[in-house]
Design goal:
mainly alpha, 4 helices, globular
C-alpha cells in the first residue's frame, strides 16, 4: 500500500508538471544535453510555483482531490509513453537494471512495512 500511495503521488506530480510545461509532452529534436536542461528548468519552475503560488489551479485541484491525476490533452496523446510500457520495452542499455532496482525497492518497502 505504501508503494502504491507513493507511486500515485509521483504520478500526480508528473501529471501536473507535464500539464504546466507541455514542451515535455512533445520533446523537440534537441540534443540530450538540451533536453536535460529543459527538464531541469521546468522542474525548477514547477517547484517554484508549487511553493509560492497557493492559488495555482493545477495544484489546488490535486490538493482537493487525492484521486485526481491530470490527463494528457488529446493532441499530445500520440507522443505519450503507453501506460503499459516498462524498462524492458526499450532498447536502452540500463532497462534491466532499472527493473531490478524497482523490484528491490518494492521488496525493501514491503519488508519494512
Amino acid at each position: 500500500r505504501l508503494h502504491s500511495s507513493k507511486r500515485n503521488c509521483i504520478e500526480r506530480a508528473f501529471g501536473v508538471w507535464k500539464m504546466k510545461w507541455q514542451i515535455l509532452l512533445k520533446m523537440p529534436s534537441y540534443s540530450i544535453e538540451t533536453q536535460k536542461m529543459i527538464v531541469a528548468a521546468t522542474m525548477t519552475l514547477h517547484n517554484y510555483v508549487r511553493f509560492h503560488d497557493e492559488e495555482d489551479i493545477h495544484f489546488v485541484r490535486c490538493d482537493r482531490d487525492p484521486d485526481y491525476v491530470p490527463t494528457i490533452p488529446e493532441r499530445y496523446k500520440k507522443f505519450a509513453v503507453p501506460s503499459h510500457a516498462s524498462d524492458t520495452s526499450t532498447t536502452a542499455e540500463n532497462g534491466e537494471d532499472m527493473d531490478v532496482f524497482r523490484q528491490e525497492l518494492a521488496t525493501a518497502i514491503a519488508l519494512s512495512w
